Design the sequence.
């Protein structure tokens, strides 16, 4: 079950760190809470229907990180648009 949006916002980094630990330390790569799942649901699209990269200027991730003055570096390794799995 998905936590309420307010909890996700408040505990965003804790949730990401937990998922990182499950993936990196335990080797579990296919979970409903994986980063790819976040991107599949939350990516914005341009007027032509093409996915805007998560680290793009018009994407909610970068706008929140800019507001909080936090560097968004997850996507140096992770895909910035849905992969269509």
Sequence:
């Amino acid at each position: 079950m998905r936590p309420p949006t307010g909890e996700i916002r408040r505990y965003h980094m804790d949730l990401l760190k937990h998922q990182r630990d499950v993936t990196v330390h335990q080797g579990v790569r296919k979970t409903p809470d994986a980063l790819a799942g976040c991107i599949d649901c939350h990516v914005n699209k341009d007027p032509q229907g093409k996915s805007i990269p998560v680290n793009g200027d018009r994407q909610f991730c970068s706008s929140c990180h800019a507001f909080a003055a936090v560097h968004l570096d997850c996507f140096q390794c992770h895909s910035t648009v849905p992969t269509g799995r």
Q: What stands out?
A: The mean pLDDT is 79.
